[in-house]
Amino acid sequence: MQTDSSEIIITVIAGTITLLLLGALMLSFLFLYRSRHRRHIREKEQLKLSYERELLQTQLEIQEQTFRHISQEIHDNIGQMLSLTKLNLATMDISQPGTLEQKIYDTKKLVSQAIYDLRNLSHGLSTDYITDKGLARAIEHELEMIRKSGDYETVFQLEGTPYSLDKQNELIIYRITQETLNNIIKHAASQKIIIHLRYQPEELTLSIIDNGKGFDCTPLIDNSSFGLGIKNMHNRARLIGADFQISSTLEHGTSVTLNVPVITEAT
Amino acid sequence: MYMFLLTMDTYAELCAFIVSALTYRRLRGTPFRLFPFFLLFIVLVELAGRYISVILLQKNAWLYNISTTVEFVFYAHIFLLTLHTPDFKKLAAWFMPVYPLLVLLNLVFIQGFTQFHSYTMVLGSVVMIVLCCLFFYELLLNPVEEELRKDPMFWISTGILFFYLGDLSYNLLFNLVQKHAGHMSTKLFISINNNLILILYSCFIMGFLCRRTPRRSLSQ
What we know:
- The complex is a heterodimer.
- Helices cover 66% and strands 15% of the residues of chain A.
- The model of chain A has no long low-confidence stretch (mean pLDDT 84).
- Chain A is elongated and about 135 Å long.
- Chain A is built from seven helices and five strands, in the order H-H-H-H-E-H-E-E-H-H-E-E.
- Chain A has a domain at 153-267: Heat Shock Protein 90 (2-Layer Sandwich).
- By secondary structure, chain B is an all-alpha fold.
- Chain B starts with 7 loop residues before the first helix and ends in a 10-residue tail after the last helix.
- The chains are: A alpha+beta, B mainly alpha.
């Protein structure tokens, strides 16, 4: 009888303790889950914030590059043409009808060219140009500007039918292209630049190849030390989920490849 | 005179009542507005129960049969007001009228009015545990940014969950304990129940105190 009662009491106490532990376990799980969830939300917000910051920075850089380009164009090209126009107008002599006619013709031609160049410049004034004309056209335009400088031979290869990506992603790809072209102009000492843009249903591949002096890629492979520009390009590519690769051979040139996965939006 | 030698659990109930009365202004307009009245009822039942057993030397099970039924219905009412999922609310809404009927049927046909209604007590405890789990499940599904520590219903549910989980095994084996453990059963019940009451009402107090006064806008 005594054993019976002890057993029952032990059973009750053990049952009570077990059930209370179960309750504690349940609450611990709730706290753990919520804390993980909150951390996840915080990380997501942080990522979104950094994406927006990077995007803003990208827009500013594109703008800055555009202004630099415009200022250079106005100074070197349009300014020169207008100066010539002014010179023509200043040296016009009514008493010499033969040369006057030629000068009027030349002046008209110069003004027309200046208007044409100005129109071309205005195209690239805003980042909306990428949205309006598409990424492929914007990159081609960028390459065309470099070709016009006369220092480079440029080739633009387009494969597949161009489609639109997310506007922000296109901006980032465009900025990476600009940065790569800047690097080629500043450091590569090349004569030829090839841009290959390949539109595939699941991926967009952008390759920028130059035949310049190349560089030692070891610091890039080690991930130990590379310039801020390349670091930025890496980070930006990562932000849009793209794969960014640089390969270079000394005296043979450099190739930059960007693989952007295409996420089809449900309609 | 003995009547006023109250135990810790009665003090806990009394404290919970006092805190709920003092914070009533904050509880008004919330699902917890009836708590002060409910806790006053619990304190009165506790005092009456003690008076009946200590002074009148009578059985007081009938009183606790009533009070525990009221407790279950009250908690179900709180869950009805705080749960969001319609099916979960339905469970609480059904339980409120059906449970007193089941208790009545149990007392009339099975356990009798002078016995503690352990069968329906187990049923009520299980439903309360389920309602608490459903509340926590909703918290998992909609993890709002607000900290759990500042949610009164979290504290109230925690108290209810631990109280009924802790009481469950005793109530499940109530008849067996009464039969085989005899005098030990009362001691066992008191030691388990009193500690659980302390947890329950401490959680209630935490719930009343953590409740923040709604901010008033400048235009008001």
